[in-house]
Amino acid sequence: MTHVAGTQKIPSASRQPAPHAGGAPTLVYAVLVYLLFVAVLCYAVGFFADIAVPKGIDGSPSGPAPVAAVVDVLLLSLFAVQHTVMARPWFKRAWIRLVPAAAERATFVLCSTLVLAPLFWLWRPIGGSVWHVPGWAAWVLRVVYVSGWLIAIGSTFLISHLDLFGIRQAYLPARGRAYRPLPFVQRGLYRLIRHPLMAGFVIVFWAAPAMTTGHLLFAAVATAYIAVGIRFEERDLARELGEPYQEYRAHMPALVPSVPRRPRTSQSLRV
Fold first, then answer.
1. Domain with 151 in it: what CATH number?
2. What are the strands, taking DSSP E only, across 3-155?
3. Under DSSP, is residue 211 helix (H, G, I), strand (E, B) or coil?
4. Tens of pLDDT along 44-91?
5. Of 13, 84, 219, 269, which sits with the fewest C-beta atoms within 10 Å of its C-beta?
6. pTM of the prediction?
7. Range of the domain at 113
8. Exposed, middle or buried, 259 (CB in 10 Å: 0-12/13-18/19+)?
9. How far is Cα 24 from Cα 171, in angstroms, rounded to an integer?
10. Is residue 14 part of a domain?
């Protein structure tokens, strides 16, 4: 669940990687980190659906529910803190004093992956049925679940998949070319909402034919984090991109597409 701007992610750091700043070893590092992330992401697909993984979100409880709830919230909080702090520009400026600028984004992805993996593995299921949808309605929810993943993953290709996961930042310096942030553009789902990646994840969290108490806890906390994280992210984007993004944010909904209305009078066009 990496941070993504409404139309473009925040540049990795205020100081951009110069030619030869990373080299081939940094590129290999970025690719290996990406492959590790993909492996964890594949596990996540099975984790939320309780399919083809040794431990899913709705497994059998192994202890008292209050203890499990505390552990689960701590695991979610660890991810939220890591993801929020490392995504801030002030942290990036300090971080590139310790790691090559060309490896900064890949290192962010690595840290996110290393927090996600224990979250899935150490997650403590909590029993109790919140809802159970049978028959054809369950299949509809499964289709919605798959659609959520398609929206989330597909949205990364609408901006720059390789840039989002730190490969482009490492590749360009390895080829002797300076990294430049991508231009501010709107395409595909970004013409409907500002954060299709996060919208996809919200669908994934809630589209469950069988919702247990533990699954509900995850969905509620993760959705709340997304709502808060968007505010932090968009504050940074407004500073970084200026008026174009502020105008985009003012007229584009965040997560749910809105039905455009035809103004009744010219006065309704005022902002």
1. 1.20.120
2. 129-132
3. strand
4. 999 999 999 999 999 888 889 999 999 999 999 999 999 999 988 899
5. 269
6. 0.85
7. 23-255
8. exposed
9. 8
10. no
